[in-house]
Amino acid sequence: MKSLLFSLLLLVVLKTQAQKHLLVDTHNDVLSSQLFTKADLGKLQSIGNFDLIRAAKGGLDAQVFSIWCDETLGDGQAFARANEEIDSLYALIKRNPKKMVLVNSAAELKQAYKQGRFAAMIGIEGGHMIEDRMDYLDSLAKRGMRYLTLTWNNSTPWATSARDEATGKLKHPGLNDKGRQIVRRMNTLGVMVDISHVGEATFNDVLATTSKPVIASHSSAYSLNPHRRNLKDEQLKALAKNGGVAFVNFYSGFIDPDYDAKEQLFLINHAKDLDSLNKLYGPYAPMKLNELYKAESDKMRPPLSMLIQHIDHMVKIAGIDHVGIGSDFDGSESYPIGLDSVTDYPKIAVELRKLGYKEEAIGKIFGGNFLRIFAENVSK
């Protein structure tokens, strides 16, 4: 009897060890939402998708924190907002020095993982936050910026966004000479070029300009949901040829082609509440509205299987070495059923195993591919 119990215990231990992979998420917006919530992310939170307690429970080892503001903060404001959010990350690390550390290279990330410390990294979401100044780009790189998303939904004077290219009204879509100069400067600074949010013309210009592999920090598959923010199969193939990695976005609107219509009806039905929330929470009002009407909003969420289909499709098109995880947690109002916070990443591994994915392949998706491209961009 004791022998049988020991064998079962050993099997459980071995299975648990086999399932543990370095887990890196390349996109979380909690630092910008924290400006409204004032949450202490070192403590367990009842709101949002991230805190250090839940991260440990979900096996999250490293997070690239998105530094973001929308286009309403223009010159004289966007760069200051970026630094304000970076300051809040520095303060979080200072409050939790034994739990987490800022890392700036693949070697430092591996060291933090060995030490059991949570690895924090910085990604700037939106080229408008450098305010068209090369010295601001250099300054943010010195503070720890490890990727720059060239555009958010709004274009910059030097790069055009997916939203703006979709209108067809741009005279000169893509990168201009200043944009190519910025991409090359990023290559020398060890700042990964992020093409999530950019238009197809910009995407093509980036691949023709960069000397390093690039990332899509939070984008999903266009062929499964033809949203302008998702990557077409041809783009996935081109990204793979470049050596880059596409990190799958969890947002319901990028996963489920029927979500947008349901959400628009939901917003119309609750327009009065949304108007009031807009005054308090700005761009985070839809998230608050979904919290207010949780039972109703939950009915709009796609099944987890849809997200798994995106991951599997992107692997089949780009290859197992070119897909990762970029959740967009704390930056969207809805995610697939079962993905409520950073505690839920293990569910993805379970579903991938059901499709026949081996542990080595899951390890690449969960963190190995990020580690490789991080090393190829940053030599320290």
TrEMBL record:
PROSITE patterns: RENAL_DIPEPTIDASE_2. Keywords: Signal. One of its GO terms (molecular function) is metallodipeptidase activity. It comes from Pedobacter steynii. InterPro entries: Metal_Hydrolase (IPR032466), Pept_M19 (IPR008257). SUPFAM superfamilies: Metallo-dependent hydrolases. Residues 1-18 form the signal peptide. This is Dipeptidase. One of its GO terms (biological process) is proteolysis. It comes from the Bacteria.
